[in-house]
Predict the 3D structure of the following.
Amino acid sequence: MTIQTELEDYAKQHPNLLAAIDQLTAAFDQVVEQLRVSVDNYWEQLKDDDGDDHDDTDISESTNNIEVRNVAAGETAVYEDVVTDADSFSGGAINNGLKAIFAGDTATLELNDVGVYKADNVSDFSDFDSSFAITLDEEDDASIETLNIISQKESGIVDKTANYLFDVTNGDTEGLQSLETINLEFDFGSDTNLLLDGESLAGVTSIDASRSDADLNLALPPLENTDSALEFVLLGDRNDQFTLSTDRLTADSLDIGVGGGENVVALTLGEPVSDSATATAITLKSSGDSNKFQLQGGNIIQEDINDGVFTNTVTILGFTSGFDKLQLEGYEGLAEQSAVDAALDSQDTLYNNVVNIADALDEGSTAWFIFRDSYYYYQDTNPGGEDGTNFSAGDTLIELPGVEFDQGFSPSGSISSFTDF
């Protein structure tokens, strides 16, 4: 008797057992099919924009209307067609926004058509209504030193500007605590008002937007009880704006370079307000296009001199007469030039010349003069010096080395006032 014959005889003698096996086999096949479909759907959902069978991020939790993503080392957090509603901070945290937690040493975000159709360009960040808001954090064993933000507008609509809000910390022990470098790359059409906020900005030394091809309005608001180590800012080749307060800078120098386009650099100058802050020497590098350098407040520290030379002047390199414009808050015209020239002494120090010129002017006046091949603008920004003099800490001194006022342009034609930033 063959094995097949024996199995057939056994099946005839036990019909119920055979039916049970058939039912079990059918149920098992059904479970396997359901599992296969579930797995296929899972991987399809996680496919990223590159078509890989893995996603760059893991959406691990969602609390208080905040979507949280955990981003593996070397991966990118991709956001597409996302608009958030985060009109304000509460306790230093974003309301109704997003959160990304990064591993490794670099945090990279790719933004595709996020926050669009929200607002036109804004010039004042004091009342900022964001359309894409995100808090950035790092894993306990991570040390994020570089933040890359890449933005694209694939829709092709370029008549609207998005408002982005990035909070790089949410408390003393959270956030990108080791952040040093921020790189911004915005494609053409991705016009953006970008507000960076948070205590982790204190350690940032470099912001590079040179690869951006969009109109970028970038602002770092005044940091409360936190100093800033910023040393280098480079804008892109479109119409950009950069806004900064200087009273908490800790570096000896800060270089701000603008690319092509018509740019605005808006600085609120002020004396150091903390033990670590210093009178930073600021250099603005013009591209030679029509740029505006808007300054409010004063940068002079009366006792901060070195052999008669100020160490904390604001210097504008490459200033082009007839194109670039220096705008000072409260400017109402230049003082009588004959009084300024009479107070000058080319053999004396810069410091003493500024003191003498200030005292020769009416209170609150603005003047220009040439000293050792550089043009200077002085403004009595803080009226009422010691012993009845005009010169005092809080006044403003701007240096324009190498500038040539020719073809009918004069120092008076390159300075004006402004109403706001």
